[in-house]
Amino acid sequence: MSSKGGGTALTRRNYRLASDTDKPRSTGIVNEKLLSDYLHHVFPPSTNQAPALASLRKPLGFQDLGAHLEKLLSEGEPAEDSRDEAVEGRLGPQPVVLDHTSGFEGLLFVDDDLLGVIGHSNFSSIRATTCVYKGKWAYEVLISSQGLMQIGWCTLNCRFNQEEGVGDTPDSYAYDGNRVRKWNVTTTNYGKSWAAGDIVSCLIDLDEGTITFCLNGQSLGTAFTNIKTGPGVAYFPAISLSFKESVAFNFGSRPLRYPVEGYLPLQNPPTADLMKANKLLGFIRTVLSTSIDTQEERLLEREFTGWRLHGEPTVLVTLAHIFNHFAPLMCKVYLVEDVLMNFLLGILEGGGSVDEHPLIQQLLDLFWLLMEDYEVSECLKQLMMSLLRAYRFSPIIPDLGFQIHYLRLTTAVLNHEKSRKYLLNNVLFDVLRSVVFFYIKTPLRVKEAGLEELIPTTWWPTHFDKEGKDEREPSDESADERLRRRAYERGCQRLKKRIEVVEELQVQILKLLLNNKDKTTGEASRYIFLNKFRKFLQENASNRGHPTALCPPEYMVCFLHRLITAVRMSWDEGRRQSEEAYVPPQLFYNGKVDYFDLQRLGGLLSHLKKSLKDDLASKANIIIDPAEIQASSMDDLDEDEESGAAQRPFGAAVGGALARPSWLSSPTLGRANRFLSTAAVSLMTPRRPLSQPEKVKVRTLAVEQRTEDDIEGSHGNDGLLLGRPMEESEQPIADKSLLEIVDGIVMMYNLSVHQQLGKMVVVSDDVHEYAVALKDTEEKIARCPAKRADILDELQKSQKVFSEKLNHLSRRLAWINATIYSKEKMLDVYWLLCVCIRTIEHADNTGSLFAFAPEFYLNVAMNAYSALKNYFSPANSMEELPGYEETLTQLAAILAKHFADPRIVGTDIKDSLMQALASYVCYPQSLRAVERIPEEQRVAMMRNLLAPYEQRPWAQTNWILVRLWRGCGFGYRYTRLPHLLKTKPEDANLPSLQKPCPSLLLQRHMAELLSVDKEMAASFLNSVLNQLNWAFSEFIGMIQEIQQAAERPERNFVDTRQLKVCATCFDLSVSLLRVLEMTVTLVPEIFLDWTRPSAELLLRRLAQLLNQVLNRVTAEKNLFDRVVNLRLPGLESVDHYPILVAVTGILVRVLVDGDRQG
């Protein structure tokens, strides 16, 4: 039996039972009459032949089965010549693809199948290879991103450029769901807004001269009538799209998702093959539902879902004959989607868990047994691609039925071990954007998603304070409000339960991929997944800004949450507590895990290996080969050249240049795969403290080449945990593979998840803004005089618009709260925060080796805390998290210790730590956490804050000291600047300051340090006075320029940037004065104790500076006065009050304490 698929020379497997010598023996298992009955039952004659009586039927055996089957399949097949006949009304080649040779304008990435496209310039256009001039035609566009695109039809005469695309020229027509308009030179409103995951159908009727568009199968109405037709006019499918937007076309190479009656797809469906495939599937169904009773010599009907592959020769040989024809057809994408996928989905229709459907497992066994490997591979690849497409582009309905449907089949297929490993190795990360399987899209159109039925009652906060914050306690709300809120919460719970079903299936898929017990057919799934996952992270870390390789952040968020759930389940299965999870520090320096080019705390890896090689040898028994140091230094020199080049092959040992990114066929300028090329280290296996360590070379492997032994280790080899420092326990905390996945999760959060969490808060901000506007409108309606019906009418219209918008947004917010900001998601981010804190603590214990830790661990610790505090409230409160206060204290200790840590060299990470500490001391809860850290650490922190300002960025440390003082100074308890309340008391949009929360404990530490260490006190105060002198002089210079600009007769505007700098210099001057006030109050002896050598000099300098400030600020109608009275936007904070109360505070303290001491 040879394969008929694609003219390949590969021969089909020989099934032993079908060889000539075995025929009598095999047919002897069932007698000839029974076999003939069985075969006639499985392969009945076609419907147009009258079924012959059993007695008159010609006996049928395996010898004749091949010919019989050929005859059955050829019946009703169209003649060869009619098959390739051109359809009238269409011109161009089949299959229909995008014209990547001459039919485009601008820069575009086009997929290998010539059906997917990504814009890579301002406004690029491309058309298809086939056009139509008569009849009714349709094609579909799968929207992958919801940005600016114009989709439709154009003629060959249309000339596009970077500004004009489809719909901007006379003979082109387009629909744009981003701006909700239709285009044909001019533009008008049309249709609905589209979202990523929608399908647009483009229909043209050249007999009537109309163009219509549909969104997810719903017609948007006729867009254009009387379009130009006639001789010489033919229309091509075309699209124009802006930078980074992406779509995929379906001209008919796959079944149209939403076919429209009377309209043909541009590409002919494979009718003959479809007919054959459906017949063959019918034969397979009959085999599965028929059993042979050899004792009774009769055939029995049974339910085919319970069928098992028992190796019955008769059944196997029959199936082998069917698969001889069926297998080649299953390599074609149209047939896989239309025939196979629908058949498998039908098997799962009955409901129940996926494990209750063993038939799919049996069928996959059958595929691997009876099809060539290349056929099964192609079939599985096409099946997964079809499932992913179907999952991604299915509309959202209230019970999420479509998504559940496709995820269950995906789970059933991945349950099959051999298929799972093939897909993991070759498809899931290499060909597909498989992360899509873990994404739940947010519906843009609430009504179509059925959220109105699911959440019939909407609710939003209605009582606000002056800041616009919701201030009403639940006990204060009216009975009607309470009923509405509870009904809304019940609706949210119903929605959450439905979403949880999908999330559970997604976690189930990841659990299958994390299986490390399936070693019977080669390497366990988890190790294949781990290597692919690492490569996925590399693409996203090193191709920042490259549209083809980056995974969209909204997918990353969902993937992160499902992965955390699956990893924690796997972790807990090993009878270890995932609550205690952290990443051991040796992963950062032993070279076993690739961190690509991500920055380390101590700088470049090559530099660290040179400068810390003795520490590595003494603390971790790792010996660096001098040749490696030389090679890695040279490598850093090449860094700049390499980033400009397209791909630099790195040699087989390092894995060669990066392949295509893991879901796109578009060409991409990838970085060379640098796994371990700069991190080859020599390690020593046993710990022998006294004897000379002996060198053991580590294998330098590309990510994909690592095996289970390289990760988990084996006898005398610690795997990923090679080079254990003395401080780490010998007992591993979990499977080493899980440690690397946790490390990857932290990296993922850093890459794009945090930004996305911040982005989605916009919806709740919108709800808040509209709620404030609605309340304001209702108050105006209540105050509106009865005789002004015109005003009342306008106000009621506004009220209606705001109410509708709030109804829509509150339902959308319910969806976002369930998928992104739920309590469970908050616990995931909190777990990640705790992992980072423990990892940093363990790395810190290794002393100088802490410099090897990647910067992103500190970033994630700070960002995760910020997300928990700012993004998840008010729906979920941070106080409810387990061990919340202890975690706050641990994070406070990290910030306090590391903001001035000499082991950290990166300026960006230092700034981030300083800002995080400044924000930490602003809020009462986190400030109390700083006060709870050990006294020794608190004192060290204050000493670092008081270090002289000259050698470092001082503004941030000054803000921190000011925040510790606010609430204690003279006239320093305000939350709104008093001079602003005087002029604009009603304006609620003015900036408000954080409520004061001074720290008396930290003030005491500061006082002790300054009074004991006289030298430090003098240098600190001198530097504060120097900075004050500079800041105030700069401020005066700035206001002189502003005054001159304002006095010029010609109308000119002061640069906003200049105003901003001016306001900043003023704020700095005020805050430096406040720090002086704090010092004078806490340790007056620095200025007034004449036994101190620097006291007189400091007091004199202080008096001079205060004199200068008072001269400039208090004189009537002087420069300062005039600029304040200009009331320029941006200079609201510049006024007499803030600076004069600070100066007064200093003078009062000096006078009071001077009297006391004098």
TrEMBL record:
PROSITE patterns assigned: B302_SPRY
Biological process according to GO: proteolysis involved in protein catabolic process
Enzyme Commission identifier(s): 2.3.2.27
Keywords linked to the UniProt accession: Metal-binding, Transferase, Ubl conjugation pathway, Zinc, Zinc-finger
Entry annotated with the keyword Nucleotide-binding: no
Enzyme class: transferase
Keyword Metal-binding on entry: yes
GO MF, one annotated term: ubiquitin protein ligase activity
SMART domains: SPRY
Signal peptide: none
Domain B30.2/SPRY: 76-256
CDD domains in alphabetical order: SPRY_RNF123
Pfam families given in the database record: SPRY, TPR_RNF123
InterPro entries the record matches: B30.2/SPRY, B30.2/SPRY_sf, ConA-like_dom_sf, RNF123/RKP/RSPRY1, SPRY_dom, SPRY_RNF123, TPR_RNF123/RKP
Region (Disordered): 1-26
PANTHER family assigned to the protein according to its UniProt record, in alphabetical order: E3 UBIQUITIN-PROTEIN LIGASE RNF123, RING FINGER AND SRY DOMAIN-CONTAINING
Identification of the protein by name: RING-type E3 ubiquitin transferase
Source organism (scientific name): Champsocephalus gunnari
